Amino acid sequence: MSHGPSAPAQAHGGAHAHHVPYVPVFTDGSARLKELKDIISRYPDKRAALLPALWMVQQERGWISEDAMREVGDQLGCTAAYVKGVVTFYTMYHQHPVGKHFIQVCTTSPCLCAGADDVVKAFLEHTGCKELGLTSPDGKYTVIEVECLGACGFATPVQINEDYVESVTPEKVPGILAGLK
Ligand code: FES
């Protein structure tokens, strides 16, 4: 049998894959490694420290890369695939770089009826984020829509990193952004 035409050229997702070397979070002698070991010591199974370990990575790096998943897996004696399964299950973990301020606006029906759409628009406009999920050119903001934040009586609630702001209206958006550090 003759061999067929040459294999199709490999399709690349992006124009260029820039390879920034991964800097581990849990390096020997680091405070983070100590923190992780303290947590591990409290449980019979190292994997119990998985969620806090991921949280530490995200606090340090802003998101959780595949390299970070491998690092965490190595620390906790599980595979990177197992770690990835956990990362993808929880929406609080970012698998892509996000802005310094991660802005989540509730757009579930009760908030939508109260004008959440306009709040989203105001955040997109004032942050310079072109679209939901994209990061502003200055790297400061990412805006996404989320499901009910449990504050339906205070429409529209917005979560910015770990903080909540209630009763947000489009008019309040510039002031809220100005107050972010
Ligand atoms: S529907 Fe928006 S907080 Fe519940």
Write the layout of secondary structure elements.
Blueprint: H1 31-41, H2 50-61, H3 66-76, H4 80-89, E1 101-106, H5 109-113, H6 116-127, E2 141-146, E3 158-160, E4 163-165, H7 173-178
Parallel strand pairs: 1-2
Antiparallel strand pairs: 1-3, 3-4
Residues 106, 108, 110-111, 148-152, 157 line the site of FE2/S2 (inorganic) cluster.
Features:
181 residues, alpha+beta, Arc Repressor Mutant, subunit A, Glutaredoxin, 2 domains, 7 helices, elongated, binds FE2/S2 (inorganic) cluster
Number of beta strands: 4
Which strand-content bin applies to the residues?
5-15%
Q: Trace the largest sheet across and list its strands.
A: 2-1-3-4
Radius of gyration: 20 Å
Specify the CATH class of the largest domain.
Alpha Beta
Helices and strands, in order, run as HHHHEHHEEEH
Distance between the termini: 67 Å
Q: Supply the number of structural domains.
A: 2
Q: What's the pLDDT, averaged over the residues?
A: 89
Determine the CATH topology of the largest domain. Answer: Glutaredoxin
What's the CATH architecture name of the largest domain? Answer: 3-Layer(aba) Sandwich
pLDDT under 50 segments (min length 5)? 1-17
Overall spatial form: elongated
> What is the number of helices?
7
Structural class: alpha+beta
CATH superfamily of the largest domain, by name, is Glutaredoxin
Largest sheet: 4 strands, mixed
Percent helix, as a range, is: 25-40%
Task: List the bound ligands.
Answer: FE2/S2 (inorganic) cluster
